[in-house]
Amino acid sequence: MSSTTLAVDLKSLATQEPLLRVVDVVKHFRAGVAGTVKAVDGVSFDVRPGETVGLVGESGCGKSTLGRLVTQLLPATSGQVIFDGVDLTKLGGEKLRQQRKQLQMIFQDPYASLDPRMTVGDIIAEPLVNFGLVSGRQKNARVQELLRVVGLNPYFNNRYPHEFSGGQRQRIGIARALGLNPRLIVCDEPVSALDVSIQAQIINLLEDLQREFKLTYIFIAHDLSVVRHISDRVMVMYLGKIVEVSPSEDLYQSQEHPYTKALLSSIPVPNPRIESQRRLIELSGEIPSPLNPPSGCHFHTRCPIAKVPTPCADTEPPLEQKAPNRFAACHFSEKVRTV
Amino acid sequence: MPGETLAIVGESGCGKSVTALSILGLVQRPGRIVGGKILFRETDLVQLPAEELREIRGRDIAMIFQDPLSSLNPVLKVGFQINEAMRAHDKIPKDEVAARGIDLLTQVRVPDAARRVNDYPHQFSGGMRQRAMIAMGLSNKPEILIADEPTTALDVTVQAQILELLRDLNEATGTSIILITHNLGVVAGLCKRIVVMYAGEIVEQGPVEQIFESPQHPYTWSLLRSIPRIDANRRERLRSIEGLPPDLIQLPPGCKFSPRCPFRIERCFTDDPELQNVAPDQEAACWVTMKRAYAEMGAAGILDTRPGAASGIRPPKDLAAKIVDRRTLDATSVAEAPVNE
Question: Which of A276, B24, B134, B273 has the smallest number of Cβ neighbours within 10 A?
């Protein structure tokens, strides 16, 4: 295959009904006497069928929490998660369980996410059995089919997870997620625990599967180069909020939010010539505690172009359209170029 | 070389950390150095008695580790731990130790260092802890600083700060840096020379710019092409390296990369290539080298990266059975065999 045909035409997508709509979703965690951690603090976005939406940000920005809210592994404090027209936050019990068939998740740690005491066959068949979809000989056939789909030897279904390497285990996790023919898969850092040479295998596999099964992905990672590669659109998160949403194609050329620009400037490029000319936009200090995020724009304490106190420290900028298909939450996005 | 920045690159289990630990005599039992020499200013560190090596370790050659939290003692103040390294060796006069501790923390850009020396590690963020580790490593003005994946546990913005710091320190103090990493981007930004390791052996070494420009070992070449790059056309499919690194207990005969190599020839399955000059100052251990792969196998346009795809060479039958049993030949056709880890 010369080039992927994955990249979705954004214009044709825009006219389609979104598969997933997240509306002003909030997740607060009580942290004892210290207060409340606003892990996800009013986030809205759409995901269209067949699209891959990337979600990046540094540790603690709330990206994994957001992924778990989408799959309803965590209940939202407020807001709506509308999947295929149904608000999942209003559902419970059996109704939610039935919806979950269409929403699967691939986890970061291929060592912790597979039960070491179950055979690979049982691991992959578990969701199928839970939903009463297979029985007896059928089960074995389906498991072997899934193993083949993810590039593993179908006759390994009787082996245990410890007999496999990290990359192979991640393939098992992917096979398990595919079993129920889901429409949306949330991939939470699916390659960050893997070796470099194995990462590309898994990324290519995810791309192939998307094409074959018409999957929609939310791809969460801290590595912006990986996210940009696989995603059609990238959402950048900072302290519980989305600060920028842009098509992947445009993101490297220009940014609408100073945080995105700083994040991009800190990614080392494997090319010594480019590296020697790379200008790092050093952010002062480190991410503030989500227990007590800064007032106004959460980023103003580290922002190179913030005007303090007005407006950046007292008014929170809304996420708004800055250019076709590009959204940012910044009072001065027109000045990002000058950073 | 004095003042040099050297990168040792490879995947987990390729032996890069063990190489570094060997330099300091820190390899844990049952591991031991069974041969070879480690020359530091013409002294063979392998032959050195433990006591004398202890003198060098931390004073002349210091090391910082990947995980700064588990490398710091949680019940001792950060300042005390930095000063301890100085008190253990007699390089820094005793009455200067405390002041130097604060100086060092300032030097690694920990704000308000005079106060922060009295903090405990848990009061430091991840980036700060790594700065404290670097301060500790630098405390005795070592000639070589070995940094084992110093930024792997950190966020990119913090990683960028730490790399900038290491770069400045190298320029300002002339301390040589050995950087151990799997991240080729980090190498490009910090190092002048690179050593690429695969399955416990050096497969290629030379100047960073030259090797990134024109890698001669297929492993180096493949590695550089398998990573998504922020500056690349994102529609391009990643050229993955099929299969898995070999089991170190049962290494394949011949070249260790041959079971995964698209450019292998028959000889690769039987003879283990040694490092040889492939360009001025550049060495690679390969019977083919990319020069020939480009000229004869059309490496420039190769899209299929499966083993033997470019050369059309499959392993001899008796050998194939052996390799397939343990490890994959090609993930797609043979499927991956299990690994014992």
Answer: A276
CA distance B335 to A44: 42
Query: Number of C-alpha atoms within 13 angstroms, CB side, residue B327?
Result: 23
B301 shares contact with chain A (CB less than 8 Å):
no
Task: Please tell me the total number of residues recorded for chain A in this structure.
Answer: 339
- Tell me: ipTM over 0.85: no
pLDDT tens string B115-171: 999 999 998 888 889 889 999 998 888 999 999 988 887 888 888 888 988 999 899
**Which of B185, B226, B303 minimises the CB distance to A267?**
B185
Q: What is the largest CA-CA distance in chain B?
A: 71
Angstroms from A197 CA to nearest CA on chain B = 6
What's the rounded Cα separation, in Å, for the pair A303 and A257?
Answer: 10
Q: How many secondary structure helices (H) and strands (E) does chain B include?
A: 13, 10
CB pair distance less than 8 Å for B157 and A203: no
Task: List chain B residues with CB under 8 Å of A3.
Answer: 235-237
Pairwise CA distance, residues A12 & B321, whole Å: 50
Query: Order of strands across the sheet with B276-279?
Result: B61-64, B144-148, B176-181, B5-9, B193-198, B201-207, B282-284, B276-279
Q: Does B247 touch chain A (CB under 8 A)?
A: no
**B264, B270, B275, B280 alpha-carbon torsion, rounded to 10°:** -40
Cβ <8 Å between B156 and A156: no
Report how many Cβ contacts below 8 Å link chain A to chain B.
Answer: 171
Q: Helix, strand, coil proportions of chain B in percent (round to 5)?
A: 40, 15, 45
Environment class of B232 (CB within 10 Å of its CB; exposed 0-12, middle 13-18, buried 19+): middle
Structure pTM?
A: 0.86
Cβ proximity of B104 and B46 under 8 Å:
no
Q: State how far the Cα of B219 lies from the Cα of B25, in Å rounded to an integer.
A: 29
Taking the Cβ of residue B236 and every Cβ of chain A, the question of whether any pair is shorter than 8 Å is answered with yes
**Number of helices (H), then strands (E), in chain A:** 11, 12
Pick the closest to residue A247 from A3, A42, A13, A1 (CA basis).
A13
8 A C-beta contact, residue B252 and residue B320 = no
State the nearest Cα–Cα gap between A328 and chain B, in angstroms.
20
Read off the amino acid at residue A286: E
DSSP character for A3? B
Tokens of residue A320, six digits: 């708004």
Task: Determine contact: B339 vs chain A, CB below 8 A.
Answer: yes
